[in-house]
Amino acid sequence: MNTMSNRIQTHVPAVDTATAGHLPYAVETAGRERHSVPVTDGARGHDEQPTTCTTWPGLCTDTTPGHYDHYNHNLTSNRTDWPVSLGFVANSEGTPTLYVDAGTASDFPADQAPEVAAQLRAAADSIEAMQAKVENVGYMAALRSECERLGLALQLTDDLDLDLPELKVIDGVRTVLARADSLGIALDDVRGFARTRGRCIDCMNTLDDTATPYAETYIHLDGTPIMICQSCRSGRFVAALPEMVSAALAKTIPGCTAETVAAIVDDMTARLLVPAGGVR
Fold it and tell me: Does 39 have pLDDT greater than 60?
């Protein structure tokens, strides 16, 4: 996943919209780096019906459309050779449950301890992986609700080549196409898309004709560029001037004093902040 992706005590956690990155929150949630792919007709191979349970993707192994009881009994000891069996159950009106059951092995020679320990570690890793999938599905309701609010359909896919969610026209309907194992990322992207369309990514004010793309590869779900107003872009540049000027002078004029650097920065700042059509 790219560098913009920074990613909760009950079985299904509350949705957490906080981020831990160093860029503005709006950039974190709406400005993930993605390849520019405009909204187009067709899903380029993604428009097939989901082949996984759409309620508990990645967990439930029942692919029958409209089923209510969900389960995964594929990690039994007779299938894995582990000393324990693992599984997942979520009945129609109950909370999701993970289970561990005694397997086929109850005792073993001492020299087999390393092998059994490795099997138990593998089983423990699988339990943690299941728990992570349960947390992932905790974002499902909020994601569906946000898509409905924006008049968008939602389609999940297991295609690992889909790095980040995309907005496409599928069967004539604007549809968010998202990875089933990355619902939290999809929720952040859809919320960011709704929040920042037509607004500056920094100050969130309505954009005018002087706005420019925030960065070359940062675009919305629909392929349009994320924008920044001229005031915010100038402010970002001015804030970076002291470090930039100091580094440049250190290479060209090693003996340059801090006072000289400060004077150059002050002069450049004054020139940059002259209002359009104004006189310095």
Answer: no
For the stretch 181-222, pLDDT in tens is 999 999 998 998 888 888 888 888 898 888 888 887 788 888
Closest CA to 188 of 29, 41, 40: 29
43: tokens are 């899903």
Flag whether pLDDT at 16 surpasses 60: no
Helices (H), 52-182: 77-80, 113-137, 140-149
Q: What are the DSSP calls for 154-218, one per residue?
A: EEEE--TT--S-EEEEETTEEEEEEETT-HHHHHHHHHHHHHHTTB-TTT-PBP-TT-EESSTTB
> Which residue do the tokens 């002259």 mark?
274
Across the range 130-151, mean pLDDT stands at: 91
Q: Which residues fall within 8 angstroms of residue 28, CB to CB, at 6 or more apart?
A: 4, 6, 19, 21, 188
Residue type, 57: P
CA dist list (Å): 147 to 21, 136, 152, 241, 248: 25, 17, 5, 41, 48
Whether 158 and 182 have beta carbons less than 8 Å apart is answered as no
51-56 long-range Cβ contacts below 8 angstroms, 24+ apart: 51/158, 52/156, 52/158, 52/180, 54/156, 55/90, 55/137, 55/140, 56/88, 56/90, 56/96, 56/133, 56/137
Tokens of 27: 């950039």
Residue 114 and residue 28 in contact, taking contact as beta carbons nearer than 8 Å: no
Token couple for 74: 């594929």
Average pLDDT over residues 5-16: 32
The model scores a pTM over 0.85 = no
